[in-house]
Amino acid sequence: MNLVWEWLANPESWQGSSGIPVRVAEHLAYSAVTLLIAALIGIPLGLWIGHTGKGRVAVVNLVNGVRSVPTLGLLFVAVLVVGPMLAGDIAFLVPSIFVLVLLAVPPILAGAYAGVESVDPGARDAARGMGMSPPEVLTKVEVPCALPLIFSGLRSAGLQVVATATLAASVSLGGLGRFLIDGQAYRDYGQMAGGALLVAVLAVLVDLVFAGVQRLVVSPGLSTVRSARRAARVGAVPATNPT
Questions:
Q1: What share of the chain is helix, strand, coil (3-state, %, to 5)?
Q2: How far apart are CA 78 and CA 94, in angstroms?
């Protein structure tokens, strides 16, 4: 911890193009682009699966298969295949974002379709009885009710992406992973541990941001209902006899 504190307290660690603020900004940029692309893919597809019930088994099996592929190995393969087709830093950036998107899509997709599937059938029937069309049922009933699980998927993906974006440094990109790679190369263990600590702190902060947005967006009534159901389930579990 002394080495970590010395590295963090060193003014040189916070200055220049390789300083902590620049690396944090790079890391956040990779993560934000990844989550945006993954959300544009995973949320609409998840909503469609949850609303129609079609393609769930095929898509879920495909997603789980992609999730089982080692991320680092896939990154190097992507760089070797896609890199020669591009020039400059983009040759490493595109494969890195692609691999991170593959990592982020599964939890986002799962949260979206699970959220829609968990909607009370009575709410759907009431909406149809009021004359709503299927698209209106989806946008005005199912999506608002599914928001807690959609945000749960986004938060899970955010944690995974922020933690895994350190791999971008292994293919000559920036981000907080640079401190891990460079620290290992120079046997600067304070820099390595400090970089790991920064990644952990950043992941927690990103999760807190998502939690704050969720509180603003999700209806308090949904949170109340879910809390009541959780309490009912807990209360239904018999207490363990200490003897």
A1: 85, 0, 15
A2: 9
